[in-house]
């Protein structure tokens, strides 16, 4: 804390973003500045702007050797990177080079009772209360992409909520999620209740809807949870699986592997049946 020291900090409260720096000389406060930023700014960029304003202050006042202290490791790492695409980072580097004195950037751990850092933190909080924006930026490319994706997901979710189709699938997947991809033929059969399940085939091919066990309609739930034909696949399922929803069964990794095997065997069974029927038709000719 000997000589000139500038502490920087930022704050985001209720969507409002502010940053500040405070100047000390031998532990005595000399000056401070507060800046209100527009809401599109991230905390990281607010930290960077606080450092930028501190550097510009040093440059404008022809100060000598100054230590600028920030509690943002990310901002300092960006400024220490050899290559950086963001103009604001490169501009700060150029301003530091052009200063007559020597500027040192130092990291300080946040919220450890450091009086001078707490002063900067309090000023940053006060900056969020400034009525007019001191510094305004257009949203970054990543922010525009994020907001665009959010709008698309919201519209997609509304369409999914209002749709009267795919009610079965909606019970299993009620929230749209671009990260959830089921690249699995057998699990998709369950999610759609299509394909190899006899109940679905009966609607289109004039087949019986009765399960091969002869007891119930061959629905998804009956095949997976009730049919005696597939008891062997359920032997290693965790206890209490009978009370688990179909959604929970699918999301259980061990059960999901077993379900793939069950449906694979069911598919082979249906294909063999189809093949025998075809051979019978040919023999009649």
From TrEMBL:
Record-level Gene Ontology MF annotations: nucleic acid binding; RNA-DNA hybrid ribonuclease activity
A family per Pfam: RNase_H
Top-level lineage group: Eukaryota
Occurrences of domain RNase H type-1 (ranges): 1-129
PROSITE patterns cross-referenced by the UniProt entry: RNASE_H_1
Family matches, as InterPro entries: RNaseH-like_sf, RNaseH_domain, RNaseH_sf
Full protein name: RNase H type-1 domain-containing protein
Organism, as annotated: Araneus ventricosus (Orbweaver spider)
